[in-house]
Design goal:
alpha/beta, Rossmann fold, 5 helices, 5 strands, globular
Length: about 130
């Protein structure tokens, strides 16, 4: 059975490139373009991993992350933030709210796939 990934992203170019990359790697990908719909889709789809942008319409990624980590059904799903926000305080806030990793845009497909594979194997990324 293919692993399921929920991509919560509103930038069309990112959606197209990430979705294509993940589907070519054999993942099943669902896309949600706004934070307001993201939580409900996560509950219904129950992905193996969530890729979450911070800047989203209706509800930002921080609020989505906080809600996902409070719910029994979704709190153990790994969440990797995808964001152009590269300030240390943005990364720190996401990690404090329960993000498992944080990729700063732009990132390459190999970095994305490597990060996903680590979490889907159940291993956390180790800090050097």
């Amino acid at each position: 059975m293919r692993k399921k990934i929920l991509l919560i992203e509103d930038e069309k170019n990112i959606i197209l490139s990430v979705k294509m990359c993940l589907e070519e790697a054999g993942y099943q990908v669902n896309v949600v373009k706004d934070g307001g719909l993201a939580i409900e889709e996560a509950y219904n789809f129950l992905p193996d991993l969530i890729l979450l942008n911070i800047v989203l319409p209706k509800m930002d990624g921080y609020l989505v992350l906080e809600a996902l980590k409070k719910e029994e059904k979704t709190k153990s799903i790994p969440v990797v933030m995808l964001s152009a926000k590269s300030q240390e305080e943005d990364i720190k806030k996401a990690m404090e709210l329960g993000a498992d990793d944080y990729l700063v845009k732009p990132f390459g497909p190999s970095k994305l796939l490597h990060t996903i594979e680590i979490f889907l194997r159940g291993n956390k990324i180790k800090e050097n």
